[in-house]
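Exercise: predict the fold of this chain.
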Amino acid sequence: MQLLENHEIFYKKKDLPDLCVGDTAIVTIYLELPKEQAEGEKKEKERTQAYEGVIISKHRNTKEPNATITVRKVSQEVGIEKVFLVNSPWIKDIKIISRARVRRAKLYYLRERTGKSARLKRRF
């Protein structure tokens, strides 16, 4: 049990913004390419990829070591949801672009909405 607690303390991020449901966020993650795709190099290539969308749910408090957020984006009229472990070492950065005023803890109803009905009211 102590080993697990030490691991959680080691990977805990201290510079996280205050994540709320309804926020539009950019999550930047590290990706490693397999050795075959690294174009003959001996070491593995690493690059970053940005994922921008609305936080539709938050599981556990983001201060806990195993907290997750679900981010939804619409790409080419297809909704894509991705679950991120907030304190994962594969996450480089999380930036909040805008905040929205919502009345629900989970925004799963956005899955059925399209167009203008899927917009959220901005919080100033």
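Check your answer against the key: The first helix runs from residue 2 to 11.
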